[in-house]
Amino acid sequence: MTSATSIFVLIALPWMTVATQDVIVGKLENDTIVQDQGCSNSGQRSIPRDDYEYYACLGSYRLHTRGMAWNDARHTCEQEDGHLAIINSAAEAATLIQFYRKVGTASIIHAATQEFVHIGFHDLYGEGDFVTIHGDSIYKAGYSNWAGGQPDNVGNNENCGSLYFGGGLNDVNCQMKLGFICELKTRVGFE
Ligand SMILES: [Ca+2]
Ligand SMILES: [Ca+2]
């Protein structure tokens, strides 16, 4: 090896190493499985999508900003291999509210209001019997913090679930067009 070659290697190798790592990290983020780190449920996995935001130890979420009726929103999430978001803890609720605020209410269009969004619970089976779209009581699912005065079943016709921008659950008319939050269902043991 000539001295000129040695100098090239010394200068070029660190740069080449960083470049290679960049390519690998990009591929991991786009194509493969992310491993949760530092969670009590470490080892659970979630497969991210570019249009979903991933939160370690909780899941991946997307806030759809074009308003839809609750059942149309439910179908849209299913088409993305997800489901309307189900809240299993106060931590998950806080994260969704943080996410909602980050996207911003102003970005929600064609909606009756920007103050709340559809999520995955309802009382369509029995008035006042609020269950997740997977059929569990919301109390059993782990989060049932209603906004003040809710549920109020306005017009005896509020049977779908939503989450307030300011925090807390609200029952709403299922036909009301609202933004909505989808959640990927790829985490083993999580809804
Ligand atoms: Ca109701
Ligand atoms: Ca209500």
Automatic annotation (TrEMBL):
Signal peptide: 1-20
InterPro entries in UniProt: C-type_lectin-like, C-type_lectin-like/link_sf, C-type_lectin/snaclec_domain, C-type_lectin_CS, CTDL_fold
Protein name: Hemolymph lipopolysaccharide-binding protein isoform X2
Key words, A-Z: Disulfide bond, Signal
The keyword Kinase is assigned to this record: no
Gene: LOC107263451
Residue stretches making up the C-type lectin domain: 61-183
One Pfam family it belongs to: Lectin_C
Originating organism: Cephus cinctus
Keyword Disulfide bond: yes
